[in-house]
Amino acid sequence: MQVILGKVCCVAEPPKSKRRSGCPVSISLEMLGDRWSLLVIRDLMVRGFRTFKQFQGSGEGIATNILGDRLRKLEAAGIITAAVEQADRRRVSYRLTEKGIDLASVLLELLIWGARHERTGASCALIASMEKNREQVLAEVRRRWQERDPTPLIPRFDAGVMGAFKKAKLN
Fold it and tell me: Across residues 149-163, what is the average pLDDT?
């Protein structure tokens, strides 16, 4: 049994595969350490995406074989679930699990950190508001997840926005 920040964490089951170490950061990176996994989680969490086609059209340029692999790995890790849609049995709908939605604070901090330290397509006002209101943002992410609300929480930060930004800087 482990105690972490006042919470008792009981993980009785053995690891699913051989771990490099017992370090929680290392173990987390084994599951989430590539950019595609975190982007799929982001799209489920804040963009309301649910289908393979939606992930494919996210604008990140992920290849279909990589996307399929990441969806399988995230499902095997218990971060997402996959269910065949009732209306169209050929389509699969993905959803974050409790374990997956618990990554909301991690993604929020990555979003804030990235916007603070790198030039991005994110609005400074939006990032400042999210930074100031972290708890409310996280509560809204969890509410949308619980209610299965697919309404996007944040806008898409398109390359077109960055292209316009760079063009304006050059003129």
Answer: 69
- pLDDT, tens digit (0-9, with 9 covering 90-100), for 40-73: 999 999 999 999 999 999 888 899 999 999 999 9
Rounded Cα gap, residues 150 and 135, in angstroms:
20
Which fold is adopted by the domain 31-97?
Arc Repressor Mutant, subunit A (1.10.10)
- Evaluate if pTM is beyond 0.70: yes
Going from N- to C-terminal start, the domains of the chain cover 31-97, 103-148
